[in-house]
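Thread: TM2 domain-containing protein, structure

OP (GT): Posting the sequence first so everyone is looking at the same thing. Length is 243 residues per the record. Can we get the structure tokens written out before standup tomorrow? I want them in the notebook alongside the other entries.
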Amino acid sequence: MFKPAQNAPCPTCNSQLPAQDGRCPECQGIAELFVYKSRVAAATLALFGGMFGLHRFYLRQWRAFFYLLLCWTPLPWLAGIIESVIFLATSQKSWNARYNHGIWAGRESGKTLAIFMAIGIGLLIFAISLVSWLPFDMANRFMAAQQQQQQVILAGEHIAEATEQYLKTHQQRPDTLSQLQLNEDIISPAKAFIRFERGNIYLMPAGAKTSEVSMVPVVLKDEVLWDCGTPALPKAMLPRQCR
């Protein structure tokens, strides 16, 4: 915060200014180096630029750099919203005493304060709701992914069983899934994550091509075994034929 230099004269009446204040005791003029800090301006910067600490730069506070360092997290944003409400809730007298050396430059518009207060409270409620909703959303996504994995694994096991039966009956590999006796209720939910090529089954339990599991049938006398290679997925995410 700018202050007049010690023993600096008043630009209006040329009287000596006190070093700790910005107002002349004789004519009540404000020193040239003094910059008035608006409460509404600080609250506005906190509300819309709090993530980057703009309000703290405006108030000439070194802590603004912490906001810049953490701008990639939601913490400065939430702090800015809270601080905007605090700024607007602060009385003009208290604000001037803290940020303006007690200098009074007129009361700032009450309507403006009310508008920014409402916006700040609204955004604060929104932020709290968002933070509360995120864990539930993540939990739902995790449960959906788990359900998808189980559906793909179950469908893979079902196709493998039907393929084994086909091999034993026809002594040759099936070309398509339509040649197998399958339960569509089991296959349909996982069809997008399964490929079938001449008896070979390709599963994507994790929903990604990079995690594909290949199941190649190997006929040994009257028994059908499955060569699953070396899948990168844990055993819990593999059909029982590959465990």
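GT: Both are above now. Quick notes for whoever picks this up: The chain has two domains: 39-108, 135-242. The first strand starts at residue 194 and ends at 197.
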